[in-house]
Design brief:
By secondary structure, the protein is α/β, with parallel strands linked by helices. The chain is built from 13 helices and 10 strands. Strands 3-9-10-8-7-4-5-6 form an 8-stranded mixed sheet. A two-stranded antiparallel ribbon has the order 1-2. The structure holds zinc ion (ZN).
Length: 287
């Protein structure tokens, strides 16, 4: 009888076997032992994935909003997602929308244009509704505008108070909310149609809290899910920033939302979906 090592991953298992034994002549106990030691790591990883699949993480959103016991007040937990183009909601805000919906918030969407820069406005209007539906917002809560002063375009400036505010006020009179979720002044992509939205929202006044999506730096924008690991290991908590991290299930819902925007799925959007950390994480700041 000899002793030899079978490398089975981690840890090494020391086993005994007869000199001329083959796997077919090993006893069932030996086979079970080998299977157990070969499979424990995959089993743990699978359990971890299952555990994480339904485990969104939200850091300090409630304290950021100082919502108090707003759970009792339906309107207190209402939010309008204010975007510029169909697909903004899925590409940038999906983690927040999914979290808010699953936490019982009343979520509405207002998209200020049909995204008609290339003549696809009619198609994109329908894609907007379908994307929101995937994210959990029904069609009757999704609105869009198609106004001459708010047309989609890199060279078209939407003046916050002259162009955006009147329509936003009119919308809020019909559908009041306590919060607006929108871009920050950098607008994630520096698209001029994004960048003036927070100023218009702020002009509504103190009755509506404005939550802005913090634009990631260029480098960290495409770190994907790895940013979560970086955040866990190295980031310090900031009381002024709430962090919404999607579970894998929610990430997939965000991807499916974006897939509804078929007219926009050019090759570089696939790269975006694969590597953007905004599909996983939203950092939110109260304006
Ligand atoms: Zn946009």
């Amino acid at each position: 009888m000899i002793t030899f090592r079978i490398k089975i991953g981690y840890p090494m298992l020391r086993m005994r076997a007869w000199r001329n034994s083959s796997i077919s002549t090993l006893s069932s106990t030996h086979v079970m032992t080998i299977l157990y030691h070969r499979l424990w790591l995959p089993i743990i990883l699978a359990a971890l994935v299952v555990r994480l699949w339904n485990a969104p993480q939200v850091l300090d959103l409630e304290s950021l909003l100082q919502a108090g016991n707003g759970k009792e007040d339906h309107q207190e937990r209402s939010v309008l997602v204010l975007t510029a183009h169909p697909d903004d909601e899925a590409m940038f805000f999906a983690p927040s929308i999914l979290y808010l919906i699953e936490s019982g918030w009343d979520v509405y969407g207002l998209c200020l244009s049909t995204g008609n820069a290339t003549g696809l406005g009619e198609i994109r209007k329908r894609e907007l509704v379908e994307s929101y539906r995937i994210l959990g917002v029904s069609a009757d809560k999704v609105y869009h505008l198609d106004e001459p002063s708010l047309q989609d375009g890199m060279n078209i400036i939407w003046e916050p108070e002259a162009h955006i505010l009147p329509y936003l006020q009119a919308h809020l009179e019909k559908q009041p909310v306590k919060h607006i979720l929108t871009f920050d002044a950098y607008g994630v992509t520096q698209h001029p149609n994004h960048m003036n939205l927070p100023r218009a929202a702020q002009a509504i006044g103190p009755a509506v809290k404005v939550i802005t999506l913090k634009s990631p730096s260029v480098l960290s924008k495409f770190t994907g899910v790895l940013w979560i690991l970086y955040h866990k290991l190295f980031s310090r908590s900031d009381p002024d920033v709430a962090i919404v991290i999607s579970s894998p299930r929610q990430w997939w819902a965000g991807i499916r939302g974006m897939l509804e925007h078929r007219s926009q799925l050019v090759w570089f959007r696939w790269l975006y979906l694969a590597f953007s950390r905004l599909m996983w994480v939203n950092e939110l700041v109260l304006l």
